Amino acid sequence: MACRICSGRLHRFADFGRQPISDAFVLPGDTGEEFSFDLAVGVCEDCTMVQLLNEVPRERMFHDGYPYLSSGSAVMREHFRSLADRLLATELAGPDPFVVELGCNDGTMLATIAAAGVRHLGVDPSGGVADLAAARGVRVRKDFFEAAVAADILAFEGPADVVYAANTLCHIPYLDSIMKGVATLLRPGGVFVFEDPYLGDILERASFDQIYDEHFYLFSATSVRETARRHGFELVDVERLPVHGGEVRYTLAARGARTPSPAVAELLAAEEAAALADPRTLRAFADRVAGIRDDLVDLLTGLRARGATVHGYGATAKSATVLNYCGIGPDLVPHICDSTPAKQGRLAPGSRIPVRGPEAFASPYPDYALLFAWNHAEEIMAKETAFRDAGGTWILYVPDVHLVRG
Ligand code: DWN
Ligand code: SAH
Ligand code: ZN
């Protein structure tokens, strides 16, 4: 198996077995076999990029029925609004600015840009969510961004001041084509800004559910800098973000165009000190993950034996890895509540646990709620105080299996 970035040798360090498409929620009557693949992760011995060893064809994941909505969390809506405001006040403050967002989803970020009357284009292959973006006044192109699409956008719209992507770049195995495309599309002096789950946080919190079909890469500053370098880019800024369980926002610019901020050297040094890409560090992570699986299954089987009820909260893409790796089905968790319309009334992939609307949570409250959307814990616990008042207990499995009384 060769590295998708540099063709170097990959060292496999974790294996989660057969897994379904994480966002392919199944219709109850659908008895056909689900698509599945081997979910295993490796690290490149040369460029240090952590990546999946098997690639799922992109059309199987991102299509008109793709259910995830960026707008489903109030914290994320605020996160994207403040990022848009910052871009408007800085990179987009010149005459007739133009910004392109890759993976714009339902337009949560670009809606602020559109409202400011700034020229923009969202690119997203998932037609259902792209239609929602268009309905709120966002210009959107339904396509997988890649080099040819970038050339086309340049021809019709001219160069971009900013190309931005949140939780999208790490979804794209063909980064080579993306980097070429962005290099073509940016004006001289323009920036490529993207934010994705951070390898350092994933290892520290043992948040193994960040590993699933859509998350092809787990980025670090070290691996991003090397990938960028191969395409004439320089890593000029990094910013740690608290969202989605710990992310880094990377800023790339053409080599020599901007002075790198001191944060870049600091994060690179911290990654070296923590030996992030060392196979021993990564194997220790895999050992911790196996322990979490055993603890979670023990807890759930013990609760079932005592007659306690446990429901899931948040039918996340991440939960596919937890449920299918741990072998958790409707016998242990009879349903999961979720606010996303396109997930409700369906079954979680692989595990086949029914997904119900948020109203099902309170009727009646379970004794325990397994929080699959742990990255939104603060927001969810704040709105579900009645669950705590009714005597309910949250179960979390990051960074270890533990109970929280709301
Ligand atoms: O990277 C990705 C991120 C951005 O979104 C994509 N590959 C797919 C997706 O991953 P996820 O499904 O793990 O993301 P979230 O944001 O952790 O999903 C939260 C889920 O919980 C959504 O289905 C919505 C639901 N939810 C809810 O039911 N009540 C969320 C909140 C905040 C709530 O209050
Ligand atoms: N940016 C949003 C959505 C993240 S989900 C947020 O952070 O909440 C990932 C999105 O990337 C999906 O909407 C998916 O359709 C889109 N995507 C996947 N491959 C893509 C590609 N090659 N070009 C543009 N968007 C892509
Ligand atoms: Zn490599």
Characterization of this structure:
With 406 residues, this protein is of the alpha/beta class. Helix content is 33%, strand content 23%. The longest helix has 27 residues, at 279-305. It is globular, with a radius of gyration of 21 Å. It starts with 9 loop residues before the first strand and ends with a strand. The structure holds ligand DWN, S-adenosyl-L-homocysteine and zinc ion (ZN). Ligand DWN binds at residues 68, 72-73, 167, 214, 314-318, 338-340, 343, 358, 373, 375-376, 379-380.
Give a brief rundown of this model.
It is built from 13 helices and 17 strands. It has helices at residues 58-61, 74-89, 110-115, 127-135, 147-157, 175-185, 199-205, 221-229, 262-273, 279-305, 318-326, 377-383, 385-389, and strands at residues 10-20, 36-44, 50-52, 98-102, 119-123, 140-141, 160-166, 186-197, 217-218, 233-241, 247-254, 310-313, 336-337, 355-356, 368-371, 393-396, 402-404.
